[in-house]
Structure formats: C-alpha cells, structure tokens
Write a structure and sequence with these properties.
Elements lengths: L4 E6 L3 H5 L12 H7 L3 E7 L3 H10 L4 E3 L2 H7 L4 E4 L6 H10 L4 E4 L7 H10 L4 E4 L7 H11 L6 E8 L2 H17 L2 E6 L13 E5 L3 E7 L8 E7 L2 E6 L4 E9 L7 E3 L3 E5 L5 H15 L7 H20 L3 E2 L15
Parallel strand pairs: 1-2, 1-4, 2-3, 4-5, 5-6, 7-10
Antiparallel strand pairs: 7-11, 8-9, 8-16, 9-10, 11-12, 12-13, 13-14, 13-15
Amino acid sequence: MTRTYRAAILGCGRIGCRFEEDPKRRGIQTHAGAYSACEQTDLVALADVDAPALEWAGQRWNVAARYPDLDAMLRAEAVDILSICVPSDGHAAALRRAVAAGVPAIWCEKPLATSPREADALLAEAAGRVVAVNHTRRWDRAYEAARDWLRAGGAGKVRAAATWYTGGVSNIGSHLFDTLRFLLGEAEWIWAGGGAAEARDPNLSGTIGFTGGVTCQVLGCGLDDLVLFEVDIVGSDGRLRVFGNGSRVEAWAAAPSPRASGIREMAEGKMLWQGEDTDRMRRAADDLVTCLENGGEPRCTLRDGLAAVEMVAAFLRSAAKGERVELPLRGPDRDIRIPVR
C-alpha cells in the first residue's frame, strides 16, 4: 500500500504559503501548494510567530494544527517532512532542532546557512538525514532539458559561459551558482569585480573557473525593478542559452558557414523548452518522498547548499580584496558571513 507522509511548514510567508495568491503566478508556487498536490503527502501542521499570518495560512490550506514556534509543533506532531521557510538567518537553527527531534526529511529554503562554517556544521550534524535545499531550478524541466542536451554532447566540449542576474549575490546569486554547478560541474576559483559597496546584498560581477578549464563571466545588474536570470554556454560544437528566467531554452549546432570556406558558424537554433514550469515545487516534494521510500539523496543536497553558500562568500571575499579566490575556502574565509534577507 502507498504510504502518506505527514508534512509540516515552519514559516507561513510567501514561499511557505502565499505565492499562489498572486494572480499572475500560475501553478504550484509554495511548499504548501506542493504538499497539497503531492499524492503521498498530507499537510498536517503549520508554525509561525506571526499569529495573523498563521491564522490566514491555516484557513487557506485547511490546516487545523497551528503552533507559535517550531518546538511546540515538533512536541505535539509526528512529522515526516518539515519545510523550513523562515528568514534566512533562522535556517540553520531550525534545521538543527528538526534533526535533534528526529524528523526524517527536511526541505530547507536557501541559502542553507549564513557562512560556509555554519553550513559545514549542518553537513556533519544532519549526516544520514534526507535534506533538500530549495534551489528550485534543480527540479525545473527547463534546466533539466539544458543539462540533458549538454550531457548528450550537444555543445561538444564546453569552452566558456556567460550569465546575467539581478536580485543580489546572496539572494538570487545563490540560485545562479547552484544552477551553474548543475550545468557545468564544480567551481575551482572566483575573481569578483566591483559592487561590494552598492548594497547590503550587492549584485557582484566576476569570473568563475570550473573544472575542465571552463570560465564563466557573471554579470550582476543592479536593477531593482527587473528580474534577469540568463545563462549562455558555448562549446566546440554548439551553443546553449537559457533566457527569460527559464521560460525558453534554445540550442544551436555548429555547421559549415554559408558565407566563407573553412569555418563554421552556429546554424539555426532549436527550442529545447518553452513556457513556464509551474510544477517544479511539487516535483521537489515528490523527490523527498522517493528518498524516504527508496533511499538515496534529493536532487539538491546539503553539499549543494554548502557549495552555493561558499561561492557567495568567495564572491564577497574576492570583491573586497581585489584578488582571485581559490575554492574550497580555507581558514578564516570559511567564517565570511553572507547577506541574508
């Protein structure tokens, strides 16, 4: 018989419970929506220090068990999966309490921690537990299509990449760095440029060096009213571009030039994906259920969460010092605190 897993959410804000209220957002956009759509999860409890937000979310998602804090909820409820959707500087403490309480699976919002050192400790403390970090593009079919095309050799040997983003190096930048690791592999060094004094969470630019000699130019655009998240990858035999914040993925293959002998150009492109993936949050919930039933790790692990935090810290370190920073960070650099929201 198929088992139903008891899910709970800490934090009834936007990503936890509210994003579906935006009439322009389509499909499943929250942890609550994901648990409601997943056939093997039942959302049984909510917790939030904000009493009106808790009351609203309980009514919206038909959840009667409501608690003022995580400890009260874990004392009263048998929870199989816990979502941590509180502000970023509370992620680590909540994850530790969930691990101590024996919660089998945890779905934590990004960034995982406020420093690489704090993330190191979480990795050790949660060893053997199913923990997913919500870098949502890991479950998005647009980025799956991009990765599959690259892995199938569509671009040949990848030579270089370029990206554009807004929303802060820690906030949206952490999503970008995780996406680049998903597509290109491990980062080895970072050399960041200006922007360190722009804001609390600056839109830093720089260069990332990946395993195999691939370099990626990162262009942070300080535009508060514009969402920009694009990736452009060029290889020996083709080119891939993810644009429109994942709404389009297009690929080109190199072919003999129609204008000159002895050279190749990118031929007419083909669309690998078009549209908005409105189901990625549910697939993340399904992923956690699969891990609970069959073992294995979720698509975005604690190690992935740590790597994203470390890359943010390395961007900050490099921008402040004006020098190239090697990864992994060592010594005092692992204590660099990243901006949180």
